Predict the structure.
Amino acid sequence: MKLYNTTKGVIIEQGNGFYLAEGDWDTIINNDNIYEDTLTLISVQTPLPDGRERIQNELLPPIGNQEIWASGVTYFRSREARMEESKDVGGGDFYDRVYYAERPELFFKSPAYRAVGHGQKVRIRRDSKWNVPEPELTLAITSSGKIIGYTIGNDMSSRDIEGENPLYLPQAKSYDGAAAIGPCVFIPRGPLPKDTGIRLEIIRDGALLFSGETDIGQIKREFSELAGYLFRETSFKYGCLLMTGTGVVPPDDFTLDHGDEIRISISQIGTLVNIVE
Ligand code: DO4
Ligand code: MG
């Protein structure tokens, strides 16, 4: 099933039907038993006649008061790209080491109020000349640390800033319009298959400029491992979202421009579309 956050409340898509949930986003999403409880809830409801139109017209980012965190260098492709971008300043070794280390790289990406949703604008920093989107499967985790669902995340990144010095990572990663999520949270009955595909497309002036794909089987770490480290010494009252890293990196001569359309599709979840402001 899929949960959409809309201006008219939380809408559940299940099979061909759309249903209105009782309660706010935070309460609904922070439920270890969400799959079964939601099925029970909708079993006594009649579907909304205009459900699909509602979610198309009134969509919000699928977030309430959750923080967004992100994982780094979980794919070999990310390790390779980061080593290259920071080799001249001696930073390359850090990315190699974290790829193989027991402790994963986890960083704070965005508070909810700074996140944008499907159809909203993402931004590139004005003090950066090399910017890319990062298409990432994003975990929805409850306050008890249980992974209950998945959304699509775009971890917008300023590669020249992080490449200048790894200590600049928070500035390269966290700014207005840097985190996009949506369009829904997908709640499956069980874990996602390892061949779940992630596809990135960048469209400029109506033409496809870049496309690339990967699958979640390429991620070096288990999702439970990433969530386990995140929750070790940090509590999340409302649960949280955790991006799982990028495995698609455009070539080094590519940078985003104003007006570019970024499309990220993940099997079963859907497509997150954002324009660069
Ligand atoms: O260490 C830099 C950030 C890595 C990252 O965001 C990723 O691998 O997706
Ligand atoms: Mg990333």
About this structure: The chain has two domains: 2-58, 67-276. The mean pLDDT is 97. The chain has eight helices and 17 strands. Residues 67-276 form a domain with the Fumarylacetoacetate hydrolase; domain 2 fold (CATH 3.90.850.10).
